[in-house]
Specification:
The protein is mainly α. It folds into two domains: 1-186, Up-down Bundle (Growth Hormone, Chain: A); 341-567, Growth Hormone, Chain: A. It is built from 20 helices and no strands. The protein has helices at 2-37, 49-61, 63-73, 75-95, 99-114, 117-127, 134-159, 164-182, 196-214, 217-220, 241-259, 267-275, 279-297, 310-330, 344-374, 380-404, 410-428, 439-465, 472-507, 521-559. α3 runs antiparallel to α19 (472-507) and α17 (410-428) runs antiparallel to α18. The longest helix is centred in the last third of the chain and has 39 residues, at 521-559. The chain is globular, with a radius of gyration of 25 Å. The model is unreliable at 564-568 (pLDDT under 50).
Amino acid sequence: MRELASRGLLALAAVAIGFAAADTYVVVLALPDMMTAAGLTVADLQRAAPIISGFLLGYVAVLPLIGRVSDLRGRVPVLIGCLVVFAIGSVITAAGDDLTSIVLGRFIQGIGGGGLIPPTLALIADTWPAERRGLPLGIVGAVQELGSVVGPLWGAAILAFGTWHDIFWVNAAVGLVIAAALLRHRPPRADRGWDVPGLVLALLTGGCLLLVMLEPESLTTGVTSGLAFLPVVGESRWLTPVALVAYGLGAAFVVRQATAARPLLAWREWGQVARQTDLWGAAALTVALGAVILTFASAEPERAVLADDAVVLLPVAAIALALFVWRGRHAAHPLIPRGSLSSAPAWGSIAVSFFIGSALIAALVDIPFFARLTIAPDDQLAAALVLLRFLVALPVGAVAGGWLLRRVPAGPLTAAALTLSGACFLVMASWDAKSLETFGATVVLAACGLGFGLAIAPVNAALLEHTAAEVHGLASALLVVARMVGMLIGISALTSLGLRAFRSAVADIPPIEEPCNGATTACRAYNGAMRDAGIAQLQAVFTGAAVAAFIAAALALLLLRRRATFSS
């Protein structure tokens, strides 16, 4: 019965992860309309980048803290909390009418969505013994990777019947439904009960804030009701009578939670968690990760590997990281408990994850680019379908990797899987303008995705097997952070490497004197040479990705083979 309940809990957590992962990609189709709502045009695409980077920042920067809290407070409460945060971010995004509010909503969404992964992986380690974790880890990995396939389709389905706002309203509703379903799996608590006055205050506060964000026309245009939406001072909607009432209700809710015998928020337990967590160290690591993310996520690879603000961001990251290390040595309860990641398979898994991210991003970004350059110059959908050959194989490989883990050790399995992906990248590095038209290209793309998928479960399993149960949430968070940072640094470094190859190829192309419209023989030759230069750029990127995959394979073979020193 207990195992059945655990499977039900894992199923809910996996659905939540899949849904949050889909939201990472759903913005791809909605971005043009979101830019219009924020007052931006196509020419302002660079200014719209925070809509994406804001989500990424929330997804990664706070993850170690969430993972540690799940170790101290429990997996289910953190899962529920993250789903509520995800829903709140979705509501703010859906109601956003300017760039600031949309980015804020996406940032909060990222915190909630990313925070689902560490407690879910740790939940598997808590429930299944080491020799049986492979398949559930593979299934969760497969569901997460399916987000890249389902996300754009999900967004397209909603946009066919509604607006971009509806995507995020649906997100909020689904997140709250899953959170409600998880309530029955909460651990028992002596003071649990329904604080009805607190619940009423919370609902009234949320309702008023929702009115402020939505500004329904039926109320704002009313002779009497409209007065509630006129700012008391200035022009901000957050200074209207409705907003002020929301602030008052929110303050009353806080007072009620501080004095109630059975508060909704169980603040006493959360206060104990705060005392057992190095919040200063967590803040320093968050700043360091945030600065690194902005350094690479805001870069324009055609000009430089780093963003223009790197001269400020990188010193900030270095100082914050130094402070985090200092806190780790001196704090009574450091964010990363001393010695918790000292074994080679533990920190080796994190290193392998970094290089996997560095290689994987080349496939996600540059395979569609190659298709647009060669067989689908004017068809974005056709280019996306080429990438689909890679993406579909990822979740298949994730499940297969989890199953194989019962028979093959994590190190050799990961090394073989990433060697396969690296070899496929080398084949891609030899592709020409006609290669994607062959069946062999489909085989190579599927094999490359399969290799990355096969590596998901063994890397997670190696980390969980070689860390104590008390830090499984934190360790899982660091694994995700390593992969995401690897993707950011990888795309910047590989794109810059490719652009060097492109510029070198362009330098060898004789200039054309007449205006080129493609009609003359000289123009066709010139355009063909420029296309070949673009292919040379992508060949260099694929070669770099192969090197990253081979490094990850070597590290896995060398480091992920020691027997566990901790019991689960």
